[in-house]
Design brief:
The complex is a heterodimer of chains A (about 180) and B (about 450).
Chain A (H helix, E strand, L loop, with lengths): L1 H20 L3 H21 L3 H25 L12 H24 L16 H9 L3 H22 L21
Chain B lengths: L1 H16 L8 H18 L16 H19 L1 H4 L7 H20 L3 H19 L6 H32 L4 H9 L6 H18 L7 H8 L2 H26 L3 H23 L4 H22 L4 H29 L12 H4 L1 H15 L5 H15 L3 H26 L12 H19 L6
Helix pairs in contact in B: 1-2, 1-5, 2-3, 3-5, 3-11, 3-14, 5-6, 5-11, 6-7, 6-11, 7-9, 7-10, 9-11, 10-11, 10-13, 11-13, 11-14, 12-13, 12-18, 13-14, 13-17, 13-18, 14-16, 14-17, 14-19, 16-18, 16-19, 17-19
Classes of the chains: A mainly alpha (about 180), B mainly alpha (about 450).
Chain lengths: ~180, ~450
Amino acid sequence: MLYLFYLLAAVSIIAAVVVVAARSPINSVIALVVCFLSIAGHYVLLNAQFLAMVHVIVYTGAILVLMLFVIMLLNMNATVEQRKPLAVRLMAVVTGGMMLLVLLAATRQGLALPAPEAFNPGIGLVRNIGMSLFQDFLVPFEVSSVLFLSAMAGAMMLAKKDGTEDVNLPPSSEPRDKAA
Amino acid sequence: MSALIVISVLAVAVLYLGIFSNKNVLAPVTILGLVAATALLASGWYIPHDLLHGMLDFDRTATAFSMGMAVVAMLVFAFGPDYYARKQWHVAEQYALMLFSLVGGLLLASWTNLLMLFLGIEVLSIPLYVLAGGKKRSLRSSEASLKYFLLGSFATAFLLMGITLLYGLTGSFDMGVLGTFMAAQAAPNMMLNFGLFFVLAGMAFKVGAVPLHFWKPDVYQGAPTLVTTFMATVVLMAAIVGLHRFIDVTGMPQSLAATMALLVLATLLVGNLLALRQTNFKRLMAYSSVSHSGFLLLALLANADTVGSTLLYYTFTYALATVGLFILFTIAKRANNGAEHLGIFKGLFAANPVMALCALALLLSLAGIPLTAGFVAKYQVFLLAIGAGWLKVMAFGVLMALVGIYYYVMVARELFLPAEQPVTFTVAPLNGLVITLCTIAVLALGLWPAWLI
């Protein structure tokens, strides 16, 4: 079990580095898929099967496929990396180094964190998530349905063609977007 | 809770009414539904706190604020038939989205759990991001929508960070648990301070307090005027009561008070000074709203027992004056071929003395001149600040209130100047009624404030 954790941790770290370092956006996104899959593996190790499945379906399945679509539609698979000026790169190094310094100092000092709670191995099981979702958190669950409904109605309103000019807009006050 | 369900169902019903493409029924249905919701709130019939697992609590503050928001929303919707008279598409969606946003306002008025605070903020904001972009052909409207969305998501990230830190400390989202935890806290706790700070920052964005106010003028200017009216009134009320519930539980520790005092000073200074330089009426109202949130934060800083009623009185009278003024602005804008500068009010007194006097009364109320509700509201805020010992901040607030009178009087002066070319102001009967109602309410509440306080 412990070796599995080390393996998964190594895979996710290497994949995360590849995401940042890869020259081609396609390689970067595919490395991100690997990274997310290995994180889902971590969830399984923590006995949170439901979270792992949702993670794979939502992130790896939906969001990353969407990103791949966008990259392919925009035809960005050629490497489009400009060279940044030296001053910008120097500034990036300095700010990054300062961030590292702050983080090191913070961990050396040690934040006064409360003691971790005992790990409950059953907490991630589907049954327990369902129990808390439909008992303690029923009201937020229902409210989030209102949230998603309003987001959907809003998206429809923005995306649907209406074929008329907006008459509340004065004709000469601002430039019109002819292409839209 | 029942009012919450009524408004949510009403919003879905209005969405379905959009099928029949008869926009004349939309406003009456919406207003009738809101009347029903207000009546349910007033009857005091609600689901006990425990049954909702401590998520929402419709106590006196929540009920009063919910009723106030519903009444102001009714006034805004009464402006709808005239505003959307020449618009053919998506009118039902606009009404429904505003109702969804109102649901978020009710959640913010009654939350007792940090999870509900987050959901309330999101339900309030996400319809607004869309509504701000309601004029699809207008570049400014699209800019407002995108800007509001990006900055709003950023503020939500702050809020979530704060909630996470507080959850990490107490192991619970419940505000009661947080209150007992903070009461037992003797030494300053860095993690607690950061948590409080981030939640305050997330809420300060919605209120429009100064380091986080940049979205306000652009969004107010770009959004359709009806949506701007809704944002300036209902949304401000919701954000203030949400912040009030948070601060009420924390009991205002030293670190939070210092941050709040800085926020108040910066908001009052920047809001009033930048308002002096505005020539566009909508931007002027945006900066005026920034300065009013400064006064509201000053009342929150005092954190006395009576702060809830003062906040309600202040926001409600501010909302009444703002609704009336934005309707008058739309009338004047149409009379001047869509111009938005302050000069569009020229000649209003000569053309329509009643409306001009209403505008004068509403402007003076925003400025805080005695005999209007705005004066009593500011007076109450200053009394609270003195009671809590924030004398220097209070004195600065008085100074800034005096500066604020200048730009409101500048607008009022335009009303009485003769127009450069002949203009005709067309006042629809319903609009005239709403404006008159707002004016009477503002004057009456100024003379007999005991009705509300």
